[in-house]
Amino acid sequence: MFTEERHQTILDYLTEKGRVTVLELAQRLQVSDDTVRRDLRVLDELGFLQKTHGGAVSLEVPRMARAQRAQVLPQVKQQLAQAVIEQIEPGQTLMLDAGQSLLAVAQALPDIPLTVITHALDIANALSQRPQVRLILAGGLWDARQRLFTGAQTVAQVQSLRADWAIMGACAVHEKLGLTASDAADAEVKRAMLAVSAQAMLVADHSKTGRSEPFFVCPMQQFSHWFTDRTPDWVSAPVGLRVIGAGLVSANTEKTA
């Protein structure tokens, strides 16, 4: 089997399983463990998967189970969260989208007076014991798989509120198609959050970049900041681009190709 065929087989198997070990890939491909490790290293460097001890996890994040998503790029999420909170000032109102990156942001918020609006139960739980945070949970139809509220009631509650920042996650980020979601209800809540916020920032690591999902949320130009760990080639060198650390960048998205 040629190298390219092995790589595609590995990616197909990861899409199906979400997580694989070196041993099972070696048996499936009939190659040595060292060959599998080299293949995984190459695919990891290309951003198609994340190497783990003894195997790899898929970066087809929207299709992964929630427990698996929590294991994808955890250090990157924490670094991005630390960069995001530098933009937050006391007294501001924040719309926090759902997702593991946004949970990291919630956990990293400084101990200052803030109002936080979210439809994600895990984020609400993380902030529930923070005395300086005025917490507003936008309830509605419970989605047990994603652990969030959604539907018309959630959207209506969000639409009745106002925020300084919408801090958003992403299922997929594409040069021409913008921010898209894998679920129509999720896209609707995201659009509502953006519509009632004065400014918006995107928190999305490289696993979301260069992909698209069926449901449109907004063009990239709607965000004043995009916090990511790898700047795509199609983002020009905009005014305000700055290195945050460990390869992380904050890209002002006003100028895109």
The string of secondary-structure elements, in order, is HEHHEEHHEHEHEEEHEEEHEEEEE
SS element count, helices: 9
Describe the main β-sheet briefly.
8 strands, mixed
Sequence of strands across the biggest β-sheet: 6-5-4-9-12-14-16-15
State the CATH architecture of the largest domain.
3-Layer(aba) Sandwich
Query: Which strand-content bin applies to the residues?
Result: 25-35%
Q: Rough shape?
A: elongated
Q: Detail the poorly predicted runs.
A: 237-247
End-to-end Cα distance, whole Å, is: 39 Å
Radius of gyration, taken over Cα atoms and rounded to an integer in Å: 19 Å
Proportion of helical residues: 25-40%
Question: CATH top level of the largest domain?
Answer: Alpha Beta
